[in-house]
Amino acid sequence: MNLFGKVVSFSRGKLNNDTQRVTAWQNEAVEYTSAFVTNIHNKIANEITKVEFNHVKYKKSDVGSDTLISMAGSDLDEVLNWSSKGEHNSMEFWQKVIKKLLCTRYVDLYPIFDSETGDLLDLLFANDKKEYKPEELVRLISPFYINEDTSILDNA
User: pLDDT tens digits for 45-60?
Assistant: First the structure.
């Protein structure tokens, strides 16, 4: 069992002397060795992943009030809230998404559909080694990322 290889990872890159950042690491603006910053990322990711997606159908009415119909149990609801999406569980998947959004411009996800019904079956991280057409991916744009020379923590 290679415990050391599973717990510790090393990264290298050329330091930009002006910004004191290494921008070449996986398109990230920053790479942390601080347990404090890692704990902040974990806390933010844990809190955000507690929120469930509420899939509803909005029905507009010409007279009276508009209605919302719950779509709980739909293919979209099942994949977004409950399926493991290539991880141990759904929360672990969304935690990884949030952590990536904290330090990258975007996260690309690859949806898998049933070829007969068109239902959404799964949602996975896009493979960096494979080329996709833009219409094949779901791109989540980070609300936290500012530019490659700064991070969300620079504005704290």
Answer: 889 888 889 999 999 9
